């Protein structure tokens, strides 16, 4: 277990991390998801030993590593930009860390060959960075990190500068790498799809604080915090409570005893369009594999995720009803 206890880090008056306490399991992929400026990179750098917390302790296993330098922590890090040495070949870039650690040439040769085979880049061994594509450069950066055989691999948005098709391809490769090696991956991203695809455990970081942590599907479909709903782009609406029942304001009617001071978080894909006239379609949006219908329900705009075939039949301006499964309505 990697244990972070009461981690605080500030840059001047800006508090990047605000009393973070977190348990990260070993041998799994933990994804830290949050918007830009939420403290994701700062948290990774503190785990790596590249930054020192103003307050708090870091434990890897049972050992307090807070004061340890990066090279004694058994941690490697892959950055958003590969930052390869331009004057070295792929093979030399991968072996550079081993050489700096004093390994002999035979070990370096064997380890570099192993890492290139692992990342399927043997054919690139003699090329220089300016001869590589973006995806090839990031594979070399991964090989350079893994050749040191770390206990923990930290990934700081390594796919964000790649095109969509390549990002999706490398997500699969990253997951397969972790399963093959069995080491701990801690991956940070602002991409919700990437987080859900990779994560065994999911952390939501917002404003330097951990707002939610757990099983990815549970965090996604049944968030306990409005900030989690914001990160995922869920619908967040006012709701009223009457006799222990949740009433949506567009259905309030004569429920004069209802107390309307709560918020509900509703995932877009947990709303169904049905026959009715309580809402009006104001727009429809095409995504790659699904569609979004925006409906106005008595002044409340809701986003509804539907399949492409159904989206094509929707007419902007038509009246519809909506059905919301109450078990996927989270009250915050």
Descriptive overview:
The protein is of the alpha+beta class and 332 residues long. The chain has 2 domains: 2-231, P-loop containing nucleotide triphosphate hydrolases (Rossmann fold); 234-331, no CATH class. Helix content is 27%, strand content 36%. The chain is built from 9 helices and 18 strands. The protein has helices at 40-48, 90-100, 105-118, 134-146, 164-181, 192-198, 216-221, 226-232, 308-313; strands spanning 2-11, 14-24, 29-33, 55-60, 63-64, 75-78, 152-156, 184-189, 201-206, 209-214, 235-242, 245-247, 259-266, 271-286, 291-297, 300-306, 319-324, 330-331. The strands form 4 sheets. A 6-stranded mixed β-sheet has the order 6-7-8-3-9-10, sandwiched between helices. Strands 2-1-4-5 form a 4-stranded antiparallel β-sheet, covered by helices on one side. Strands 12-11-13-18 form a 4-stranded antiparallel β-sheet, with helices on one face. Helix 2 (90-100) runs parallel beside helix 4 and helix 3 (105-118) crosses helix 4 (134-146). It is globular and about 80 Å long. The model has no long low-confidence stretch (mean pLDDT 92).
């Amino acid at each position: 277990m990697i244990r972070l206890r009461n981690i605080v880090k500030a840059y001047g008056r800006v508090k990047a991390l605000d009393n973070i306490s977190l348990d990260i399991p070993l041998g799994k992929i933990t994804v830290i998801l949050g918007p830009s400026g939420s403290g994701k990179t700062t948290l990774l750098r503190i785990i790596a030993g590249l930054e020192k917390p103003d307050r708090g302790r870091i434990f890897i296993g049972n050992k307090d590593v807070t004061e340890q330098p990066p090279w004694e922590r058994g941690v490697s890090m892959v950055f958003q930009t590969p930052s390869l040495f331009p004057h070295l070949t792929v093979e030399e870039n991968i072996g550079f860390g081993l050489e700096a650690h004093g390994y002999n040439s035979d070990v370096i040769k064997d380890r570099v060959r192993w890492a290139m085979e692992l990342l399927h880049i043997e054919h690139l061994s003699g090329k220089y960075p300016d001869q590589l594509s973006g995806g090839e450069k990031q594979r070399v950066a991964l090989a350079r990190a893994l050749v040191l055989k770390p206990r923990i691999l930290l990934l700081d948005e390594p796919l964000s500068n790649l095109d969509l098709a390549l990002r999706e391809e490398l997500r699969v490769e990253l997951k397969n790498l972790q399963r093959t090696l069995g080491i701990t991956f801690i991956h940070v991203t602002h991409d919700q799809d990437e987080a859900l695809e990779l994560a065994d455990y999911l952390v939501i970081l917002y404003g330097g604080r951990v707002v939610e942590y757990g099983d990815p599907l549970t965090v996604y479909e049944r968030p306990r915090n409005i900030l989690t709903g914001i990160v995922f782009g869920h619908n967040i609406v006012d709701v009223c409570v009457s006799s222990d029942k949740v009433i949506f304001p567009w259905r309030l009617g004569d429920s004069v005893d209802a107390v309307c001071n709560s918020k509900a978080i509703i995932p877009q894909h947990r709303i169904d369009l049905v026959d009715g006239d309580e809402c009006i379609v104001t727009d429809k949006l095409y995504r790659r594999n699904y569609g979004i219908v925006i409906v106005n329900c008595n002044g409340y705009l809701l986003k509804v995720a539907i399949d492409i075939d159904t989206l094509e039949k929707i007419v902007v301006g038509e009246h519809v009803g909506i059905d919301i499964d109450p078990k996927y309505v989270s009250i915050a």
